[in-house]
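Researcher: Next entry in the queue.
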Amino acid sequence: MEKIKDLYKKYKKIINYLIFGGLATVVNFITYIISVRIFGIDKVLSSGIAWFFSVLFAYITNKIFVFESKTKGIKAMLKELTSFFLARIVSGALCDIGTFALMTNVLKINDIISKIVTQIMVVIINYIFSKLIVFKKRNDPKEEQI
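Model: Structure for this entry, 146 residues:
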């Protein structure tokens, strides 16, 4: 049991990211399925709606549980929030929506299979953006403390 605790401490950010990334993916899938199957919204538009709700969930959980961001001041918090959403727009536009549209509309791949593939890509890209850009430690202690 001690070895498991040590491994968790060593890889806490990655483990928590995968857990909350998985939950964000669940939010994405549920929102997508509700939009398409219940409300009859277009598949690509539904994918965009699902992306929006999963990004809101991801920001909150990444900030609190994954990277334990302790931003100080409104300017630093707005910068963090903006960079998070900009990173997600890039991954969302290119991967979650763009690749999904290509897979479903051009390549005629099943929408659920396409969602699975794009979500795996999104999780990897988002971790890289979050770790290296959004929640990285800053040199200016007035700007942000993690």
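Model: The first helix runs from residue 2 to 10.
Researcher: Noted, moving on.
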